[in-house]
Structures are given as C-alpha cells and as structure tokens.
C-alpha cells in the first residue's frame, strides 16, 4: 500500500480529512477492495488498542492505591495537637479563677454618663436601573457532543425475522448464514470480518448491507456506515427503508455532523416515517 493511502486511512480515523482528501478517500474506498479492507482493519485495531490501554490504566491505579494504603500511618496512635492546646487553656482559666482580686475601701461614686450624639441616619439609597445585558455578554449554549448523544440512542437493529433458522459452524452453513448468525449473537466485530467472505452478489444484498452498516456504527466507523445507508436511501427498494433514515442520522451524530443529523431527523418527523417517536425525541434534544 502506498504512503498516500496510509496517510488517508490515518487521517480518516482521526476525523481530520480535508475536502480534497475526503474526495480521494471516497474514490479509493469504492474502487479499491484492498483499501476498503485496510480501513476496516485499522479501525478495529485502534479499538483494540484503546480497550487494552484502559485495562492497563485500571490495573496500575489499583496497584498504586494498594501501595498508598500500605504507607498510610495508623492514625489511632497519634494524639492530636488540639488536645494539648485545650489542656493549656483549661489550666490558665483555673489559675485566673482562684487568684485573689484586689479590693479597696474607698467608695466609688457613679460616673455620670456622657451624652453621645446620635449618628445621622444614612441617606436613602437611590434606585438604580440594571444595565442592559449586551447580546455578546449573554451565555452561549454549550456545544452538542454528537458522540455522547449517539451512545445514548444507538442500539444495533434487531428483528425477529433476522433470527437464524439454521445454526452451525462456518463449515456446516453458508457464509451468508454465518454472517447473519454472528450479527444476531451480538458479535459485531466478527460479523464485519465474515462479511468480507461473502460473494459479490451477497455483499450487494440490502439486508446484508444494512446489517453491515449497524456493525460499522458499533465499531465507531460512522463515515463508512453513512456511505452504505446513503446509498440504500437513494435506491429506496429495501425492507429496511423505514429504518435507514434513523440509522443514517445516528451515523451523522457519531461523526459530529450535527446539522445533517437534525435535517434527517426533521424529515423523519415531517414524513411520519419509521422510528417517529425516537426521531422526535432526539430532534428535540439537539435543538
């Protein structure tokens, strides 16, 4: 694979493609099967590295916590310094109470109270109208984190009609049945690999394409999923035609294309399409 292809794959997974790079990326992924497969492999490798890094970090934090607990002193044997200070204060007060007070036989005449002048009342405060708040000083709404919203709403599509009627190993059943069995069992990463073993005809099947798009969304490859779903939306002839716009909106959210997601959700609500209730709720959350 040439250096340009490697650079395109890396920048694609960093969501850093320029307009020109994106056009070249789309051209290659549609015309070069090896390039498309490398994009998929790279995404899965990044996900595996991320999960392994989180596991190692949790392990190190647990070890560090045990070390700190072992070094912590036994606080039950330490006498706080506040108790010492309290004993000193009690001793001084005791000496003050038992010491004799000095008395005199001379009568004391009461001191005439001095007349104090009363202070002048403070001036009444003037009412001050609040200064108008300029539009620039008003708080701006927080930006929407598309990935977090996506995670809250995304669930891979499941339908009772997708449950495999035949189960078995890849040797006993066809590659297509094996692919759909992996998807039904929730093994989405393995299903992506199994999709590559399908025949050209099976890879163009709308059901298989729709399931692959769901697998890609689960693998956080929203751009690749969006390409499949956009193509299905243009064709229009599919048993999943009511579901495609919903998952297309989610793919836009995952890749940070908030306006595209809102537009797609608005179309679902306006046409009263599939997942209407979900679309209306999500559209309201994005406003």
From TrEMBL:
Disordered, as annotated region: 103-142
Top-level taxon in the UniProt lineage: Bacteria
InterPro entries per UniProt: TPR-like_helical_dom_sf
Biased composition annotated in UniProt, kind: Low complexity: 126-135
Protein name: Tetratricopeptide repeat protein
